[in-house]
Amino acid sequence: MDRPLSTLRPSQIYRPEVMEDIHLKAELGRYRFRGFGTLRPRPLPSFDDLTFIPCSLTRIPLEGYRERCSTKTRLGTRHAKRPIELDTPVMITGMSWGALSYNAKVALAEGARRVGSSTTTGDGGMLPAEREHSRVLVYEVLPSRYGMSIHDLRAADGVELTVGQGAKPGTGGVLLGSKVSPEIAAHRELPPGVDQRSPARHPDWLGPDDMIIKIEELREATDWQVPIFVKLGATRVFDDVKLAAKAGADVVVVDGMEGGTAASPEILQDHTGIPRWPPSARRGAASRTSGSSARCSSSSPAASGRASMPPRRSPSAPTPSTSALRRSSRSTATSRFTSRTITPSGRSPTRAITATRDAARSASPPRTPS
Length: 370
Fold this sequence. Notes:
Elements: H1 16-28, E1 33-36, E2 73-75, E3 84-86, E4 90-91, H2 102-115, E5 119-120, H3 128-133, E6 137-141, H4 150-155, E7 158-162, E8 174-175, H5 182-188, E9 196-197, H6 207-221, E10 228-233, H7 237-246, E11 251-255, E12 261-265, H8 266-271, H9 277-290, E13 295-299, E14 302-305, H10 322-338, H11 349-363
Parallel strand pairs: 5-6, 6-7, 7-10, 10-11, 11-13
Antiparallel strand pairs: 1-12, 2-3, 4-14, 8-9, 13-14
């Protein structure tokens, strides 16, 4: 006897919303586009999940009426003659005029100016009113080159070379034709009312080796005045940050998958990239490994942090002699080897290792003064 449909248990995979999405895609004949960002059912960690360790004995608290805690941050001290200085290092990432309205772009620029932060142009070039209301404006260079102007590039306080975007890493951008008004079409030199699709990569360079030349080109175009940012979608963060720092970037921006977009396939927003928190630790480790002084920041929103450098030796600290270093490395190698061998019967492993170390020390040449 057949079971009535009303008593069938719901599927955990083909839920009602999944079936509705399949039916809609079948009617459209393509995947679904939308703006905003990831809308996963399970929320990703956000800045609201942060907790802070307050002051106690190891960190004495500051007296607010006589002591100041400054958040002032300088970006671009590695190469730029005119570094960026921010009072509040929470930067507004790139959102284009077209994806956002004229009023929204001007409001963001004015808000960033009032709090002492920066804003970024986004795709499609610089809006003149955004430059007028910004104290610090970063010009974004994307694969599309829509609205690209060397004069606007030189008028900016920084240049951001975009390799990828967190909401859709490894793919190009889309601006739906409904947003390409005659005014925006004229600014981008495109026909009005037609979907604008950007390429997935830059047309004039391939890979990290070519990016070195591209960064040099941007520095020469701006007379080495402003810092160069490299923006990456969070994917293989450890290696990507090292390559960007080696290529000569002043600032490396890592964009998490929570970042927004004007339009993108929904499956890319929900199922590609890495959330912002895991890359934070990876980019810090990469900057320390590369030994560069480039700053790393996380985007969406961006919080800048100085990349750690290896500690410098104090001028007064004695330098170990060559023989001492050679003796130390020989002793370490011997102890590592003996810890993996089978010791003679009747002797404990600890005594065997100690005896081998003593023999290595006695066989070493006498220590010479440094």
